[in-house]
Design brief:
Chain lengths: 165, 501
Amino acid sequence: MSIHLRGKDGTETTIDARLQGRKWIVDDGETRREVEVLEHEGARISFTIDGIVHCAHVHVGAREVRVVRNGRESVFQRQARAGGSSAGLGAETNEPVLRAPVPGRVLKVDVVAGAAVQTGDVLVVIEAMKMETPIVAPADGTVVEVHVEGGALVEQDQAVVTLGY
Amino acid sequence: MFSTLLIANRGEIAVRVIRACRELGIRSVAVYSEADRSAPHVSLADVAVPIGPPAPRESYLDVERILGAARSTGAQAIHPGYGFLAENAAFARATTAAGLKFVGPSPEAMEAMGDKLGARRTMAKLGIPIVPGSDPDADPATLLDAGRQVGFPLLVKAAGGGGGRGMRRVDVMEHLPDALESAAREAGAAFGDTRVYVERVIERARHIEVQVLGDQHGNVVHVFERECSLQRRFQKVIEEAPAPNLASAVRDGLLGAAVRAAQAVAYEGAGSVEFLVDERGFYFLEMNTRLQVEHPVTELVCGVDLVQLQIRIAAGERLPFAQGDLAIRGHAIEARICAEDPARGFAPSPGKIESFVEPAGPGIRCDAGVTSGNVVPPEYDAMISKVIAHAQDRTAAVARLRAALRELTVLGVATNAEFLDALLDDPAVLAGTADTQLITRDYASWTPPVVATSASSPDFVAAALGIVLQSSSSASKGGGGGAATVTPWDTLGHWRLGGRR
């Protein structure tokens, strides 16, 4: 099967993994490596690359894969297909939908739909682990919709406020 | 000695107290909120009683529910741990009124010392220098006046407890009203007390605290000092014992002042007297009338069990040693592992822990409040475990802790472990000269180094294998009685059983 991952450094890498007997032949188009899984228990995978043993803990999520090895975590984004564009990532335009940066509880809502807001205004405060995280207006604008109520639980990345600029 | 003791807390400290109970032959009673049903302290205790919804106010801060759990299980004593109700004199009083022993000082001593105002007055009377500051108050107007008098930069601090909750640094008058409002709100949520006070910031100071122990018979000893200067957002992140590079005259001054302070209030149990130390001398900061998060470093270098001693003292036993019997052996250093994401400004990172593997080896101690499969709830403190290293000297202890931090595996929630490892490589930290502002000054925008992705890196291969193994395992599960497809999953089973070596 073909696997496309994007690393934190932005590099997109595609490899082809093919089972041949007991070994996986992993090919990135330039180099072929023999990978053998020694043990797979829960999130823990021990494996060899060209005979050298490694061990990692891997969590495969819908959008990203997290790997912890030697106390270091690497996060890879799963890509639908190789070379998928990363449009919008570096764009300077402001997103109209402001999302919860952390999962937590809505402590207070300071704005209502229709309110005019200025850059830096606190719109909503979310509390998680006794820390307050304010959601502020990234630019001057008008509140189109407030999606949450005080006291509500929010997931990470859940829409909190929609702004019109 | 008590036969049953209730622990009014959660997480690693509840686990720690349960272990001490086991060793003393005491039946332990845990309490838990709905969010903590599968937490280690619940399964480890002899009895566990549900006390309500996840919100601390309706569970771990609810005095009536906790006393009800104590009554229904026949507990004779309550250990409050740290945080929650640990420094709440009203809770201590209610515990006593219910005919139970509170493991800690008398409510009077808590008010004299736990209440920041009372503590400052007592210290001033004893001739111990204090940091300029105001009385605690709930009235914003009074506090604004006080702020003007104390001068800037200043700290807004919670009257009801420590641990950085409800604390704000304010550099100019214009920011004081907002800081007072949010600090009061945070303090109310964390300690059930919205009163705050202001205190002048001492620049370039070290935070050094002295562990004290007092029994019911008037004996008081110190168990030496701890260096706790490495703090992020007023939260200690690395602590050690003994304090490095401390002039012996200053150290003697601190230890003596702490003992005098404890004696002045007939202090019972374990407590810590916190000081700020700069090149001019030291100032009393506050006294924590409870066990500290960082108590293990003292335990390791002094060979004492502070939690067992707390319980023995509460049961009326005498201190089993005199001051002269205590000595420091080697050096210990602790790292607080918090579920927060340094890549995203240290935002809280609650969620499910997929894998949790603690480091081990000579001189390594792990006090954890979670295990694999647990959910870190968003309602509580972000600290999930502590890793503590003990070695013959400071250099060896730091190296040992760094090695342990690299062995620690936490998958599913982000942690600050890599940040702490980087911090332990800082020249000032290695030299033992770090002050309380070091992290704010030099690590405000720290993010984990980005490692270049390469198809041949083991991390990348591991990620790819994770995807391959997951899809093949779900394929074999979903296959349901179809053709005899050979999946890598099946093949793997053979490898494991067959044993290649």
